[in-house]
Amino acid sequence: GAVVSQHPSWVICKSGTSVKIECRSLDFQATTMFWYRQFPKQSLMLMATSNEGSKATYEQGVEKDKFLINHASLTLSTLTVTSAHPEDSSFYICSAWTGDQPQHFGDGTRLSIL
Amino acid sequence: KQEVTQIPAALSVPEGENLVLNCSFTDSAIYNLQWFRQDPGKGLTSLLLIQSSQREQTSGRLNASLDKSSGRSTLYIAASQPGDSATYLCAVPISGGYNKLIFGAGTRLAVHP
Q1: If interface means Cβ-Cβ distance under 8 Å, which residues of chain B face chain A?
Q2: Second label for A93, Cα 20 to 30 Å away, from A67, B40, B64, B102?
């Protein structure tokens, strides 16, 4: 149980493109979903927190207009990287939280912007 | 502000050795501490969760201890195997928080036959 599916697992696209990443909790309802970013050989950094039906809250230094988060249901959150540039290339990981620990993590999405 | 440090950054050992990975955090007022495993290019697998009221947790060959007062946790891996090769991350909630996690940079472990 407690499976989080993240899609796509890998995406390569041209600079200026917008990319959408989905995070789904398959067998449970998530009160909250978190989005993390991980640069090579660095640790995970929390980008934003999304709660179903309300606006996401972003961590300091994360551009909310660049990284659009939608949490339309208790099982789905999406992260859209708008007008992506090479510096946005990273590994993005979501996690889903039921209100009880621990968080359940997806397998991540590797984003490469050419 | 909570900060998490992991030592060593990398470790290479022969199979069968017992290992200790270290994690330290600056704000001792934590609700819990978690240890995760991350394989290359993959997401995170939760290994052990220690509540603030607990001193240690065990799962198979893994044992994690927590000393809140000193801001330290250790992950002990007994009889290491090549399949244990991965990056091990520890994480604690942000200062004053419960569900937002702050991660250490991890220890990259390589166990060779």
Answers
A1: 32, 34, 36, 41-46, 49, 89, 99-106
A2: B64
Note whether B100 contacts A34, CB cutoff 8 Å. Answer: yes
**pLDDT tens digits, one per residue of B54-88:** 999 999 999 999 999 999 999 999 999 999 999 99
> Phi-psi region for residue B106, left (φ > 0), alpha (ψ -120 to 50) or beta?
left
Show Cβ contacts of residue A60 under 8 Å, excluding neighbours closer than 6 positions.
none
DSSP reduced 3-state for B49: strand
> Model confidence over B1-43: pLDDT tens digits?
889 999 999 999 999 999 999 999 999 888 899 999 999 888 8
Name the E strands within B8-106: 10-14, 19-25, 32-38, 44-51, 56-59, 62-67, 72-77, 86-93, 101-103
Asked if A108 and B100 come within 8 Å (Cβ–Cβ), the reply is: no
Question: Percent of chain B having pLDDT more than 90?
Answer: 81
